[in-house]
Protein backbone atom coordinates (compact mmCIF):
# COMPACT_ATOMS: atom_id res chain seq x y z
CA UNK A 1 0.00 0.00 0.00
CA UNK A 2 1.38 3.40 -1.00
CA UNK A 3 0.59 6.06 1.60
CA UNK A 4 0.26 9.78 1.06
CA UNK A 5 0.62 12.14 4.02
CA UNK A 6 -2.34 14.43 4.65
CA UNK A 7 -1.94 18.10 5.43
CA UNK A 8 -4.28 20.40 7.32
CA UNK A 9 -5.89 21.88 4.18
CA UNK A 10 -7.12 18.42 3.11
CA UNK A 11 -9.25 17.91 6.23
CA UNK A 12 -12.43 19.96 6.65
CA UNK A 13 -13.96 20.30 10.11
CA UNK A 14 -17.58 19.17 10.14
CA UNK A 15 -17.35 17.47 6.73
CA UNK A 16 -17.26 13.64 6.40
CA UNK A 17 -13.86 12.26 5.42
CA UNK A 18 -13.82 11.11 1.78
CA UNK A 19 -11.32 8.30 2.48
CA UNK A 20 -9.99 6.12 5.31
CA UNK A 21 -7.26 7.78 7.41
CA UNK A 22 -4.31 5.70 8.64
CA UNK A 23 -1.09 6.16 10.61
CA UNK A 24 2.39 5.61 9.22
CA UNK A 25 2.09 1.82 9.91
CA UNK A 26 -1.14 1.57 7.85
CA UNK A 27 -3.24 1.12 10.99
CA UNK A 28 -6.74 2.54 10.49
CA UNK A 29 -7.29 5.67 12.60
CA UNK A 30 -10.50 7.10 11.16
CA UNK A 31 -12.98 5.37 8.88
CA UNK A 32 -14.29 6.98 5.71
CA UNK A 33 -17.20 9.36 6.47
CA UNK A 34 -15.93 10.10 9.99
CA UNK A 35 -16.44 13.78 10.90
CA UNK A 36 -13.62 15.71 12.60
CA UNK A 37 -15.48 17.83 15.16
CA UNK A 38 -13.18 20.74 16.04
CA UNK A 39 -9.77 22.39 15.68
CA UNK A 40 -8.24 20.75 18.75
CA UNK A 41 -9.10 17.27 17.49
CA UNK A 42 -7.62 18.11 14.09
CA UNK A 43 -4.40 19.40 15.67
CA UNK A 44 -4.03 16.20 17.72
CA UNK A 45 -4.49 14.03 14.64
CA UNK A 46 -1.99 16.06 12.64
CA UNK A 47 0.60 15.67 15.41
CA UNK A 48 0.18 11.88 15.28
CA UNK A 49 0.54 11.91 11.51
CA UNK A 50 -2.31 11.09 9.10
CA UNK A 51 -1.99 9.15 5.86
CA UNK A 52 -4.27 7.93 3.11
CA UNK A 53 -3.98 5.10 0.59
CA UNK A 54 -2.94 6.56 -2.78
CA UNK A 55 -5.39 4.22 -4.55
CA UNK A 56 -8.29 5.71 -2.59
CA UNK A 57 -7.22 9.22 -3.57
CA UNK A 58 -7.03 8.27 -7.24
CA UNK A 59 -10.41 6.51 -7.12
CA UNK A 60 -12.06 9.56 -5.57
CA UNK A 61 -10.50 11.90 -8.12
CA UNK A 62 -11.76 9.70 -10.96
CA UNK A 63 -15.27 9.60 -9.48
CA UNK A 64 -15.38 13.39 -9.10
CA UNK A 65 -13.95 14.17 -12.53
CA UNK A 66 -16.46 15.66 -14.99
CA UNK A 67 -17.62 13.28 -17.70
CA UNK A 68 -15.62 13.50 -20.92
CA UNK A 69 -17.01 16.03 -23.38
CA UNK A 70 -18.94 14.41 -26.17
CA UNK A 71 -17.33 15.31 -29.46
CA UNK A 72 -19.85 16.18 -32.16
CA UNK A 73 -19.21 16.69 -35.83
CA UNK A 74 -19.90 20.15 -37.21
CA UNK A 75 -22.79 18.67 -39.21
CA UNK A 76 -24.37 17.24 -36.05
CA UNK A 77 -23.99 20.61 -34.33
CA UNK A 78 -25.94 22.33 -37.10
CA UNK A 79 -28.68 19.73 -36.81
CA UNK A 80 -28.55 20.14 -33.05
CA UNK A 81 -29.11 23.90 -33.40
CA UNK A 82 -32.35 23.21 -35.26
CA UNK A 83 -33.35 20.64 -32.63
CA UNK A 84 -32.74 23.19 -29.88
CA UNK A 85 -34.87 25.86 -31.54
CA UNK A 86 -37.63 23.29 -32.07
CA UNK A 87 -37.67 22.74 -28.30
CA UNK A 88 -37.42 26.42 -27.35
CA UNK A 89 -40.03 28.16 -29.49
CA UNK A 90 -43.16 26.05 -28.82
CA UNK A 91 -42.61 26.45 -25.06
CA UNK A 92 -41.85 30.16 -25.30
CA UNK A 93 -44.82 31.43 -23.22
CA UNK A 94 -43.79 29.22 -20.27
CA UNK A 95 -40.07 30.12 -20.24
CA UNK A 96 -40.02 33.57 -18.65
CA UNK A 97 -37.12 32.72 -16.36
CA UNK A 98 -35.00 30.69 -18.74
CA UNK A 99 -35.66 31.72 -22.33
CA UNK A 100 -33.21 34.64 -22.65
CA UNK A 101 -30.08 32.67 -21.62
CA UNK A 102 -31.11 29.69 -23.75
CA UNK A 103 -31.64 31.70 -26.92
CA UNK A 104 -28.41 33.59 -26.18
CA UNK A 105 -26.57 30.26 -25.97
CA UNK A 106 -28.11 29.10 -29.26
CA UNK A 107 -27.20 32.35 -31.03
CA UNK A 108 -23.65 32.03 -29.69
CA UNK A 109 -23.49 28.45 -31.01
CA UNK A 110 -24.53 29.58 -34.50
CA UNK A 111 -21.97 32.39 -34.47
CA UNK A 112 -19.31 29.88 -33.42
CA UNK A 113 -20.29 27.38 -36.13
CA UNK A 114 -20.27 30.10 -38.78
CA UNK A 115 -16.77 31.14 -37.73
CA UNK A 116 -15.55 27.55 -37.48
CA UNK A 117 -16.15 26.87 -41.18
CA UNK A 118 -18.26 29.34 -43.15
CA UNK A 119 -18.23 27.18 -46.29
CA UNK A 120 -19.72 24.21 -44.44
CA UNK A 121 -22.24 26.55 -42.82
CA UNK A 122 -23.37 27.75 -46.25
CA UNK A 123 -23.38 24.18 -47.55
CA UNK A 124 -25.81 23.16 -44.79
CA UNK A 125 -28.06 26.14 -45.56
CA UNK A 126 -28.07 25.71 -49.34
CA UNK A 127 -28.37 21.92 -49.42
CA UNK A 128 -31.44 21.49 -47.23
CA UNK A 129 -33.15 18.18 -46.58
CA UNK A 130 -36.13 18.31 -48.93
CA UNK A 131 -37.92 15.48 -47.11
CA UNK A 132 -38.24 17.31 -43.80
CA UNK A 133 -40.78 20.01 -44.61
CA UNK A 134 -42.45 19.81 -41.19
CA UNK A 135 -39.27 21.16 -39.56
CA UNK A 136 -39.06 24.02 -42.04
CA UNK A 137 -40.13 26.69 -39.54
CA UNK A 138 -37.11 25.90 -37.37
CA UNK A 139 -34.47 25.14 -39.99
CA UNK A 140 -35.47 28.28 -41.90
CA UNK A 141 -34.95 30.47 -38.83
CA UNK A 142 -31.54 28.93 -38.12
CA UNK A 143 -30.30 29.37 -41.68
CA UNK A 144 -31.80 32.86 -41.94
CA UNK A 145 -29.86 33.72 -38.77
CA UNK A 146 -26.70 32.42 -40.47
CA UNK A 147 -27.18 34.52 -43.61
CA UNK A 148 -28.15 37.61 -41.60
CA UNK A 149 -25.08 37.43 -39.37
CA UNK A 150 -22.81 36.94 -42.39
CA UNK A 151 -24.39 40.00 -44.02
CA UNK A 152 -23.88 42.02 -40.83
CA UNK A 153 -20.25 40.96 -40.58
CA UNK A 154 -19.73 41.95 -44.20
CA UNK A 155 -21.30 45.35 -43.40
CA UNK A 156 -18.91 45.86 -40.47
CA UNK A 157 -21.36 45.67 -37.59
CA UNK A 158 -20.13 45.34 -34.01
CA UNK A 159 -20.24 41.90 -32.33
CA UNK A 160 -22.97 43.13 -29.97
CA UNK A 161 -25.22 44.19 -32.84
CA UNK A 162 -24.57 40.95 -34.69
CA UNK A 163 -25.54 38.88 -31.64
CA UNK A 164 -28.73 40.93 -31.25
CA UNK A 165 -29.55 40.39 -34.94
CA UNK A 166 -28.92 36.65 -34.66
CA UNK A 167 -31.30 36.38 -31.70
CA UNK A 168 -33.92 38.35 -33.61
CA UNK A 169 -33.58 36.03 -36.63
CA UNK A 170 -34.03 32.95 -34.47
CA UNK A 171 -37.22 34.33 -32.91
CA UNK A 172 -38.81 36.44 -35.65
CA UNK A 173 -41.23 33.62 -36.56
CA UNK A 174 -41.82 32.33 -33.04
CA UNK A 175 -45.61 32.55 -33.37
CA UNK A 176 -45.80 30.64 -36.69
CA UNK A 177 -42.90 28.18 -36.68
CA UNK A 178 -45.20 25.16 -36.58
CA UNK A 179 -47.52 26.71 -39.17
CA UNK A 180 -44.58 27.29 -41.53
CA UNK A 181 -43.77 23.58 -41.44
CA UNK A 182 -47.35 22.59 -42.20
CA UNK A 183 -47.55 25.09 -45.06
CA UNK A 184 -44.29 23.81 -46.57
CA UNK A 185 -45.68 20.28 -46.39
CA UNK A 186 -49.27 20.89 -47.53
CA UNK A 187 -50.33 20.01 -51.07
CA UNK A 188 -52.79 22.88 -51.47
CA UNK A 189 -52.44 26.68 -51.70
CA UNK A 190 -52.30 28.90 -48.63
CA UNK A 191 -55.65 29.21 -46.85
CA UNK A 192 -57.13 32.56 -45.87
CA UNK A 193 -56.79 31.83 -42.14
CA UNK A 194 -53.14 30.89 -42.65
CA UNK A 195 -52.52 34.08 -44.61
CA UNK A 196 -54.07 36.13 -41.79
CA UNK A 197 -51.72 34.56 -39.23
CA UNK A 198 -48.74 35.16 -41.50
CA UNK A 199 -49.56 38.86 -41.83
CA UNK A 200 -49.92 39.26 -38.07
CA UNK A 201 -46.94 37.14 -37.00
CA UNK A 202 -44.34 39.93 -36.58
CA UNK A 203 -46.42 41.52 -33.82
CA UNK A 204 -47.48 38.16 -32.37
CA UNK A 205 -43.88 36.96 -32.20
CA UNK A 206 -42.71 40.15 -30.49
CA UNK A 207 -45.57 39.82 -27.98
CA UNK A 208 -44.49 36.25 -27.17
CA UNK A 209 -40.94 37.46 -26.58
CA UNK A 210 -42.11 40.21 -24.25
CA UNK A 211 -44.17 37.70 -22.26
CA UNK A 212 -41.04 35.57 -21.95
CA UNK A 213 -39.14 38.47 -20.42
CA UNK A 214 -37.29 39.89 -23.44
CA UNK A 215 -36.85 43.65 -23.00
CA UNK A 216 -34.17 44.43 -25.61
CA UNK A 217 -35.82 47.20 -27.66
CA UNK A 218 -33.63 46.66 -30.74
CA UNK A 219 -34.32 42.92 -30.80
CA UNK A 220 -38.09 43.45 -30.44
CA UNK A 221 -38.15 46.18 -33.10
CA UNK A 222 -36.33 43.96 -35.60
CA UNK A 223 -38.89 41.20 -35.03
CA UNK A 224 -41.84 43.59 -35.39
CA UNK A 225 -40.49 45.21 -38.56
CA UNK A 226 -38.92 42.28 -40.40
CA UNK A 227 -41.63 42.25 -43.08
CA UNK A 228 -41.95 46.03 -43.43
CA UNK A 229 -40.43 47.72 -46.49
CA UNK A 230 -38.65 51.04 -46.74
CA UNK A 231 -41.12 53.44 -48.32
CA UNK A 232 -44.14 51.34 -47.34
CA UNK A 233 -45.86 48.33 -48.82
CA UNK A 234 -44.81 45.79 -46.22
CA UNK A 235 -46.76 44.30 -43.36
CA UNK A 236 -48.26 44.27 -40.78
CA UNK A 237 -48.44 48.10 -40.58
CA UNK A 238 -47.10 49.31 -43.93
CA UNK A 239 -44.53 51.50 -42.14
CA UNK A 240 -42.29 53.56 -44.44
CA UNK A 241 -39.36 53.87 -42.02
CA UNK A 242 -37.67 50.56 -41.22
CA UNK A 243 -34.64 50.02 -38.97
CA UNK A 244 -31.53 48.52 -40.63
CA UNK A 245 -31.60 45.23 -38.63
CA UNK A 246 -35.16 44.59 -39.82
CA UNK A 247 -34.09 45.28 -43.41
CA UNK A 248 -31.28 42.74 -43.10
CA UNK A 249 -33.67 40.19 -41.59
CA UNK A 250 -36.22 40.69 -44.34
CA UNK A 251 -33.66 40.18 -47.11
CA UNK A 252 -32.13 37.09 -45.48
CA UNK A 253 -35.61 35.71 -44.72
CA UNK A 254 -36.92 36.16 -48.27
CA UNK A 255 -33.74 34.87 -49.91
CA UNK A 256 -33.69 31.69 -47.80
CA UNK A 257 -37.41 31.13 -48.41
CA UNK A 258 -36.92 31.37 -52.17
CA UNK A 259 -34.17 28.72 -52.25
CA UNK A 260 -36.04 26.34 -49.90
CA UNK A 261 -38.22 23.53 -51.27
CA UNK A 262 -41.95 23.09 -50.68
CA UNK A 263 -44.28 20.22 -51.52
CA UNK A 264 -46.05 22.44 -54.06
CA UNK A 265 -42.96 23.93 -55.68
CA UNK A 266 -39.29 23.39 -56.27
CA UNK A 267 -36.84 25.91 -54.83
CA UNK A 268 -35.49 28.71 -56.96
CA UNK A 269 -31.90 28.32 -58.07
CA UNK A 270 -29.38 30.34 -56.10
CA UNK A 271 -28.69 32.41 -59.18
CA UNK A 272 -32.35 33.28 -59.84
CA UNK A 273 -32.95 34.08 -56.18
CA UNK A 274 -29.90 36.36 -56.25
CA UNK A 275 -31.14 38.10 -59.41
CA UNK A 276 -34.53 38.76 -57.82
CA UNK A 277 -32.91 40.01 -54.62
CA UNK A 278 -30.56 42.33 -56.54
CA UNK A 279 -33.50 43.69 -58.54
CA UNK A 280 -35.69 44.26 -55.47
CA UNK A 281 -32.84 46.00 -53.61
CA UNK A 282 -31.78 47.93 -56.73
CA UNK A 283 -28.22 46.73 -56.22
CA UNK A 284 -27.98 48.23 -52.75
CA UNK A 285 -25.44 47.34 -50.05
CA UNK A 286 -27.60 44.63 -48.50
CA UNK A 287 -28.02 42.57 -51.67
CA UNK A 288 -24.35 43.09 -52.50
CA UNK A 289 -23.42 41.80 -49.03
CA UNK A 290 -25.28 38.55 -49.77
CA UNK A 291 -23.72 38.12 -53.20
CA UNK A 292 -20.20 38.88 -51.96
CA UNK A 293 -20.59 36.52 -49.02
CA UNK A 294 -22.02 33.58 -50.96
CA UNK A 295 -20.49 34.01 -54.38
CA UNK A 296 -22.34 33.19 -57.59
CA UNK A 297 -22.07 29.46 -56.87
CA UNK A 298 -22.08 28.96 -53.09
CA UNK A 299 -21.14 25.77 -51.23
CA UNK A 300 -23.88 23.18 -51.64
CA UNK A 301 -24.81 24.26 -55.17
CA UNK A 302 -24.74 21.66 -57.96
CA UNK A 303 -22.94 22.91 -61.08
CA UNK A 304 -22.07 21.77 -64.60
CA UNK A 305 -18.38 21.83 -65.52
CA UNK A 306 -16.69 22.37 -68.86
CA UNK A 307 -15.32 18.83 -68.53
CA UNK A 308 -18.88 17.49 -68.75
CA UNK A 309 -18.86 16.49 -65.07
CA UNK A 310 -21.40 17.51 -62.47
CA UNK A 311 -19.93 18.87 -59.27
CA UNK A 312 -20.99 20.04 -55.82
CA UNK A 313 -19.46 23.34 -54.75
CA UNK A 314 -17.20 22.78 -51.73
CA UNK A 315 -15.65 26.14 -51.05
CA UNK A 316 -15.88 29.67 -52.39
CA UNK A 317 -13.02 30.70 -54.62
CA UNK A 318 -10.93 33.83 -54.97
CA UNK A 319 -13.47 34.98 -57.57
CA UNK A 320 -17.25 34.66 -57.36
CA UNK A 321 -17.37 32.37 -60.41
CA UNK A 322 -14.41 30.11 -59.58
CA UNK A 323 -15.32 27.95 -56.57
CA UNK A 324 -13.64 24.72 -55.55
CA UNK A 325 -15.86 21.87 -56.71
CA UNK A 326 -16.09 18.14 -55.99
CA UNK A 327 -16.99 16.15 -59.12
CA UNK A 328 -19.81 13.68 -58.35
CA UNK A 329 -20.41 12.40 -61.89
CA UNK A 330 -18.27 11.64 -64.90
CA UNK A 331 -18.52 13.35 -68.28
CA UNK A 332 -21.36 11.00 -69.25
CA UNK A 333 -23.40 11.93 -66.18
CA UNK A 334 -22.81 8.66 -64.32
CA UNK A 335 -22.34 8.85 -60.55
CA UNK A 336 -18.80 8.22 -59.36
CA UNK A 337 -17.77 6.57 -56.10
CA UNK A 338 -14.60 8.63 -55.66
CA UNK A 339 -14.81 12.38 -55.15
CA UNK A 340 -12.34 14.40 -57.20
CA UNK A 341 -11.76 18.06 -56.42
CA UNK A 342 -11.83 20.43 -59.38
CA UNK A 343 -10.34 23.94 -59.40
CA UNK A 344 -12.78 25.84 -61.59
CA UNK A 345 -10.28 28.61 -62.29
CA UNK A 346 -8.77 26.01 -64.66
CA UNK A 347 -10.62 26.46 -68.01
CA UNK A 348 -10.86 22.67 -68.38
CA UNK A 349 -13.07 22.57 -65.29
CA UNK A 350 -14.74 25.98 -65.50
CA UNK A 351 -18.32 26.25 -64.26
CA UNK A 352 -20.62 26.54 -67.26
CA UNK A 353 -23.78 26.99 -65.18
CA UNK A 354 -25.91 25.64 -62.39
CA UNK A 355 -27.25 22.12 -62.88
CA UNK A 356 -30.99 21.96 -63.49
CA UNK A 357 -31.56 18.51 -61.96
CA UNK A 358 -30.51 18.66 -58.30
CA UNK A 359 -31.71 15.16 -57.36
CA UNK A 360 -28.11 13.92 -57.26
CA UNK A 361 -27.47 16.16 -54.23
CA UNK A 362 -29.57 13.93 -51.98
CA UNK A 363 -27.03 11.13 -52.46
CA UNK A 364 -24.00 13.25 -51.53
CA UNK A 365 -23.64 13.61 -47.75
CA UNK A 366 -21.31 16.33 -46.43
CA UNK A 367 -19.04 13.68 -44.84
CA UNK A 368 -18.16 12.46 -48.32
CA UNK A 369 -17.17 15.94 -49.43
CA UNK A 370 -15.51 17.40 -46.36
CA UNK A 371 -14.55 14.28 -44.42
CA UNK A 372 -15.28 13.11 -40.89
CA UNK A 373 -12.38 14.86 -39.14
CA UNK A 374 -14.27 18.08 -38.58
CA UNK A 375 -15.12 17.64 -34.93
CA UNK A 376 -15.15 20.62 -32.62
Describe the protein.
- The chain has 14 helices and nine strands.
- It has three domains: 62 residues, no CATH class; 221 residues, Orthogonal Bundle (Hypothetical protein af1432); 66 residues, no CATH class.
- The model has no long low-confidence stretch (mean pLDDT 90).
- Helix 6 packs antiparallel against helix 7 and helix 10 crosses helix 11.
- Strands 8-7-6-5-9 form a five-stranded antiparallel β-sheet. Strands 1-4 form a two-stranded antiparallel ribbon.
CATH superfamily of the largest domain: Hypothetical protein af1432
CATH architecture designation of the largest domain: Orthogonal Bundle
Give the SSE order as H and E letters: EEEHEHHHHHHHHHHHHEEEEEH
Q: How confident is the prediction overall: mean pLDDT?
A: 90
* Shape designation: extended
Radius of gyration: 29 Å
Give the class from helix and strand content and strand pairing.
alpha+beta
Strand content: 5-15%
Largest sheet: 5 strands, antiparallel
Q: Please report the total strand number as a whole number.
A: 9
The unreliable regions are none
What portion of residues is helical? 40-55%
- Strand line-up across the major sheet: 8-7-6-5-9
Count of helical stretches: 14
What is the CATH C level class of the largest domain, in words? Answer: Mainly Alpha
Tally of domains: 3
Cα separation of the termini: 41 Å
Report the CATH topology name of the largest domain: Hypothetical protein af1432
Amino acid sequence: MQLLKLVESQIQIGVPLPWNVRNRDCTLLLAKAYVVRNESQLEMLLERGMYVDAEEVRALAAAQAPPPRTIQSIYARWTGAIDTLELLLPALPDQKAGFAPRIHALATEILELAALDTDIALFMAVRQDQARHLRYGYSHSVYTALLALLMAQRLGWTPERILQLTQAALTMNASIAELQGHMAHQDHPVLDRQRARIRQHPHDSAALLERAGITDAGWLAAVRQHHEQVGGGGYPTGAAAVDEPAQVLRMADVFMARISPRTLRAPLSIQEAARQMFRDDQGGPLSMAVIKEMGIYPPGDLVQLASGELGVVLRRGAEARTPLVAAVSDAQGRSVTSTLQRDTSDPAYAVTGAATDRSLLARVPPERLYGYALDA
